[in-house]
Amino acid sequence: MFTAGFIVPEGKKVLVLRENQGWFEVGLKEEGLKGWTESDKVERIKP
Question: What pTM, to 2 d.p., does this model score?
Fold first, then answer.
C-alpha cells in the first residue's frame, strides 16, 4: 500500500533522493514517506 499524497509543512527538512527534469524525489525518513515535487518548491540547505 502506498500513500497517494502528503503535505509537508513549510520549514520541514526533507531528503532529496533524486532529480529528474525539474523535479525532486524527496523523502521523510521517520515518517516512511517519499514522493515527487517540482524543484522550485524546495529550498536546498548546504551543511
Answer: 0.79
